[in-house]
Amino acid sequence: MAARDRYSRKLECSRCGNSGFAEVSEDDNPRRQNPGFLVDEMPAGFFDERKSNDPAKYMIRCQCGSVFPFKQRSHYAPGGEPRA
C-alpha cells in the first residue's frame, strides 16, 4: 500500500471573505493513474459541492452559497510574489 502525502490548503471565499484551512491527502505513488485525492477535514463554513479524485475538478460550496474549485490560481498581494 502506498503512503499518502498530506497537506493543508487555504480556502477563501471571494464573495463573503470566509476562510479556513482544508486538510487533504493524495497517494504518494506518481505512477498511479488516479491520485486518490481526498479532503480529510473541511474548515467551518465550507462544504463539498462535487467530490472528485482530481483536485482540479473538486468543487467547494461556501456557507454564503458561492461555489468555487478547490484548485485555484494563487493570488498574491502586490510585492508579495514568490521569488524565482
Could you explain the architecture of this structure?
A hairpin with a 6-residue loop joins strand 1 and strand 2. It is built from no helices and six strands. The protein has strands spanning 4-12, 19-27, 38-41, 46-50, 59-62, 67-69. A three-stranded antiparallel beta sheet has the order 1-2-3, with no helix packed on it. The protein has a three-stranded antiparallel beta sheet with strand order 4-5-6, with no helix packed on it. The radius of gyration is 14 Å and the shape is elongated. It starts with a strand and ends in a 15-residue tail after the last strand. The chain is an all-beta fold and 84 residues long.
Tell me roughly what share of residues is in helical segments: under 10%
> How would you classify the helix and strand content by structural class?
mainly beta
Query: What's the number of helices?
Result: 0
> What is the beta-strand fraction?
35-45%
Mean pLDDT: 82
Low-confidence stretches: none
Q: Per the principal axes of the C-alpha atoms, what is the gross shape?
A: elongated
Counted beta strands: 6
- What can be said about the biggest beta sheet? 3 strands, antiparallel
H-E string = EEEEEE
Distance between termini? 36 Å
Radius of gyration: 14 Å
Strand order of the largest sheet: 1-2-3
